[in-house]
């Protein structure tokens, strides 16, 4: 998807929610928009330092927290990495297919999987507040 279109969409979401899309937050958003898979916070920090020499770990983590709170990014827990969500205009269940060979990540949105997980959790008396399901394997390109 077009990065400028995504940035414009993100600014609109921020305006609608009364949140500030600061220049640093926008730069981190753009860095993530330019990536195909997950990116670690320190890798993002090194890239950010190319234009923001004073950037510190706290700078990147504050930006990532903001982007996460607004639903702009997903955290890939198993890889301790972050990726841009291209569907941040609505809340949705998330399932990630993570290629262990090349690192590519595909995002799925199965309400059936989400519904089944919520039902199974409810049977145990558990209420799911958030869910991201991660599946590791090998993508079509790497299997060839």
Automatic annotation (TrEMBL):
Question: What Pfam families does the annotation carry?
Answer: FUR (PF01475)
User: Is Cytoplasm found in the keyword set?
Assistant: yes
Under the subunit heading, UniProt states: Homodimer.
Give the location in the cell.
Cytoplasm
Q: What is this protein called?
A: Ferric uptake regulation protein
Similarity comment text for this entry = Belongs to the Fur family.
PANTHER family on file: ZINC UPTAKE REGULATION PROTEIN
What Gene3D superfamilies does the database record attribute to this sequence?
3.30.1490.190, Winged helix-like DNA-binding domain superfamily/Winged helix DNA-binding domain
Q: Which organism is it from?
A: Pseudoalteromonas aurantia 208
Which CDD domains does UniProt cross-reference here?
Fur_like
Going by the UniProt record, its keywords in alphabetical order are: Cytoplasm, DNA-binding, Iron, Metal-binding, Repressor, Transcription, Transcription regulation, Zinc
């Amino acid at each position: 998807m077009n990065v400028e279109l995504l940035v414009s969409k993100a600014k609109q979401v921020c305006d609608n929610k009364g949140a500030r899309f600061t220049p640093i937050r926008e730069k981190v958003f753009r860095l993530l928009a330019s990536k195909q898979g997950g990116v670690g916070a320190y890798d993002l920090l090194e890239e950010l330092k190319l234009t923001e020499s004073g950037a510190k770990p706290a700078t990147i983590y504050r930006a990532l927290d903001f982007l996460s709170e607004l639903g702009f990014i997903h955290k890939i827990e198993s890889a301790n990495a972050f990726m841009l969500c291209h569907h941040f205009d609505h809340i949705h269940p998330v399932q990630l297919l993570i290629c262990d060979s090349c690192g590519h990540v595909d995002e799925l949105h199965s309400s059936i999987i989400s519904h089944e997980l919520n039902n199974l959790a409810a049977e145990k008396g558990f209420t799911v507040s958030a869910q991201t399901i991660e599946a590791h394997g090998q993508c079509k390109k790497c299997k060839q």
